[in-house]
Amino acid sequence: MKVTREEAAPREVVLNIELEPDDLESYLDRSYRRMVGRVQIPGFRPGKAPRVIVENHMGKEAMIRESLDFIAQQSIEKAIEEEELEAFGDPDIELLEINPPSFKATVSLEPVVDLGDFRGIRLEPEPVEVTEEQVFAVLEEMQRDAAPWEPVDRPVKFGDLVTMDVDGFIEGQQVADDKAVDFIPTEDNPTPFQGFSVYIEGLKKDQIHEFTLPIPEEYPDESAAGKECRFKVKVLEIKEKALASLDDEFAKGVGDGYDSLETLRSSILEDMTQRAENISQRAFQENSLQEVIKGATIEVSRLTTDREIDHLLEDQAQALKNRRTDMDTYLRNAGKTEEELREELRPSAQERVTRFLVLRRLAQEENLEVADEEIDAEIDSMTSGKSESADSLREVLSSENSRMSLSNAILSRKVVERLAEIVQGKVAEEESLTEEQIDEDDPASPDVAEEAGESDAEGEGPSDE
């Protein structure tokens, strides 16, 4: 096998690989074993024709094509090993010739990531405060949710439950014929189109009202988008919420454990505070990571970014499929080519690649790993409380790919948690405390410091813990 190497774009190497006749022997034998059982050759029972007969019958090029993917994979892996390259991801392969096979492989090299002085970053999370007004708003929402609907004899107000008949016409064609449908008009209710609720407000029972609304240009039904819809509605019934008093009796009706309104209020305050602290902590972790990214220097191949664009396109294609359309239709409606879309996605792909590389490098710097027991615990947590589907869900989560995904998610979580400690100076404080304790034990003894140094060097944990 002949291999020539040339440096290409940053963090990329191009390998030109040409197989010689002797290199093909094992591959041709493999092709023969794969083909002999399904090739019909006069005078031979299935699977019994000698290789030379099969090769003469099918042709050498057909034999090569039979194992071409395997030939490419094996020869490129061997070439990467011989050239002592640290490959990052699968190479981009171009077939140059069939007989003898030759390939051009663009190999993405391991990215270079320098995190800079990330240990010197100092940030603090935003303080969390839950006001009495916010707690009272939750109480009011609970009050409304628990209240029954009762008929009223007055015009429609926003927030009422209105039962009505609705007819809709587009260019004279009836598109809606709904009888006795329930509808809650609000200022921001976009159903069926923005502004519909405004025409319902103020109507009385048994009143009939006709009005026209424009249909948005981005409406999913392209045949209706941009046109107008003529509505005819008849109000059949109007109901409002019969609100109970916010008192101890109301609290007792919410659920077990609430014997007074104050108990319920305290519980709401505790839950809201916990949620706010979780949100604040996640935002703080993200801000910390973004600060590290700002100070990081990263060299990564364009091929790596291109592969991430491929993944983004796959995700977008799946999303379009879920909406019962396809990429060709989307591109045609958007008036752009696939290459233009790829370039639009490039910044997002670069951000995702950068984020992944920084998280991975931080994990390496801090010696963070994920044990099998941690993945098992995560699966236990995800399946707890799901008595009916627990076994099937556990089976799905226990697959190799799912466990790998869970491992990556757990590792990312551990990294950002560790980073949050670093940027708050908590890691440095722990180190200083350890040094002070050593000095207090025997401030004049150099042996103590030497022993401490040996302990740090041999320990399994990160050096800054």
Could you explain the architecture of this structure?
The structure is a single chain. By secondary structure, the chain is α+β, with helices and mostly antiparallel strands. It folds into 5 domains: 109 residues, Alpha-Beta Plaits (2-Layer Sandwich); 88 residues, no CATH class; 94 residues, Chitinase A, domain 3 (Roll); 120 residues, Trigger factor, C-terminal domain (Trigger factor, domain 2, Orthogonal Bundle), CATH 1.10.3120; 33 residues. 51% of the residues lie in helices and 17% in strands. The chain has 16 helices and 11 strands. The strands form 3 sheets. Strands 6, 7, 8, 9 and 10 form a 5-stranded antiparallel beta sheet that branches. A 4-stranded antiparallel beta sheet has the order 1-2-4-3. Strand 1 and strand 2 form a beta hairpin. Helix 8 crosses helix 14. The protein is extended and about 95 Å long.
Essential attributes:
16 helices; 5 domains; extended; 465 residues; 11 strands; disordered C terminus; 17% strand; five-stranded antiparallel sheet; Chitinase A, domain 3
Query: What's the overall geometry?
Result: extended
Q: Calculate Rg over CA atoms.
A: 34 Å
What is the H/E string? EEHHHHEEEHEEEHEEHHEHHHHHHHH
Number of helices: 16
The SS-based structural class is: alpha+beta
* Separation of the first and last Cα atoms: 50 Å
Let me know the CATH homologous superfamily of the largest domain.
Trigger factor, C-terminal domain
> Which percent bin holds the helix content?
40-55%
Biggest beta sheet summary: 5 strands, antiparallel
**CATH architecture group name of the largest domain:** Orthogonal Bundle
Look at the structure and give the mean pLDDT. 88
Quaternary structure state of the chains depicted: single chain
How many domain modules?
5
Briefly, what CATH class of the largest domain? Mainly Alpha
Strand content: 15-25%
The stretches of 5 or more residues where confidence is low (pLDDT under 50) are: 432-465
